[in-house]
Each structure stands twice: as structure tokens, then as C-alpha cells.
Known about the structure:
The structure is a single chain. The chain has about 200 residues and is of the alpha/beta class. It has a single domain (about 5-155), classed as Ribonuclease H-like superfamily/Ribonuclease H (Nucleotidyltransferase, domain 5), CATH 3.30.420.10. It is about 45% helix and about 15% strand. The protein has helices at about 55-65, 75-80, 85-95, 130-155, 160-165, 170-180, 190-204, and strands at about 15-20, 30-35, 70-75, 105-110, 120-125. Strands 3-2-1-4-5 form a five-stranded mixed β-sheet. It is globular.
Amino acid sequence: MPDFSHESRYAGPVAGVDEAGRGPLAGPVVAAAVVLDPACIPEGLNDSKQLTAAKRADLCARLLDCARVGVGIATVEEIDALNILWATMLAMTRAVDALGFRPAMVLVDGNRCPRWDHPSQWVIGGDGLCLSIAAASIVAKHRRDCMMIQLDALHPGYGWASNKGYAAAVHQEALRTLGPTPHHRRSFAPVAQAHFDFGTAAAE
């Protein structure tokens, strides 16, 4: 389980940063930055992938009550223009900026930090080691899942409410039969191929 040992190494507020949505074929990438209050840390914080959707929703609400939270989004258009790596870095930068103050240290899940002027350190597997990063993973995952559920209502047939834009069988079949939506990442090979195939079929 993650603990507070990484944060305790630094004087001043420490933000944990993580993202959700690098791999899907559709939807934005969402990042969150969370500064925990050591006197008010919700119990049960963990890597978001280890939690149920209901537990993530509950913890997200509790974090919004007792922590400083910033959320940053990079759109599908930005993902296609920049590539998913740099769009993720952009979302992380926006998340930290959304905190409204400058943290003493930013701990980033993964093996690299954005190109910014914040003092920062990456932590491989940080969402399972560091409480602030675990909190950020929960907020980012919950926020993005809610977005994909809303988009599913606008574009039924792709199964986004359940697959959240990942390349599930129902999603890939819908790409072939319905074609890509404006929320699909056309720089991703399965979408580009589906766009070509759908356009070719429509022209015949």
C-alpha cells in the first residue's frame, strides 16, 4: 500500500501527479495534481486500478473535501497534434497550474516529468507507493470515466460507458460499422485504419 514517506522528505506542500487515458482510442487524456493534508488523509487511497469504480467515486469526493486538487485535460485534437506523450505532459502541467499555487515539490508517476519549472521527481510505480500520487490517480481516473460515460450517451454503440474508450471488441466493431466520431484519436492506428476503411466503404 502507498504511504506518505515520499512526501515527508520535503519541506512545504508536495503535489502528487498522475494521468488517466493514455491508451484509449477515444476521449481526452486527464491528469490530476493532489496536495494532501497530512491531518486529513482519506483511508483506502491506492492505485486507482486496484479500486472499484464506486470506491474511486467515494474517495474522489472525500479528496475534494480535504485536499487541494487540480485537474488538467488535453483534448483529442491536442493528442493528435502533439502525440499522446506530449499531450499527457501538457495535461499534467495544466493540473499543477490548476492548484492555484506553486508546490514545494511535484512527484510524478512514471519515468519522466514534464518540461516545466517546478521542482519535481518522477516515481516509477508511484501510484502504488506514494499516497499523493495514488490520490491523483483516483481523481484522474474518476474524472475521465465520468467524461466517457457522458460521451457514450452522445455517441451510443461504441460501449464507452463500460470500456471508457479502450480497444474492446465492441468498440472496434463499432469503429468498423459506424466509423470514427469527433472524439476518436485519428493519430492512433486502429482509428486511422477504421477511418480509411469506413470512408472507402461509404464511397463504394
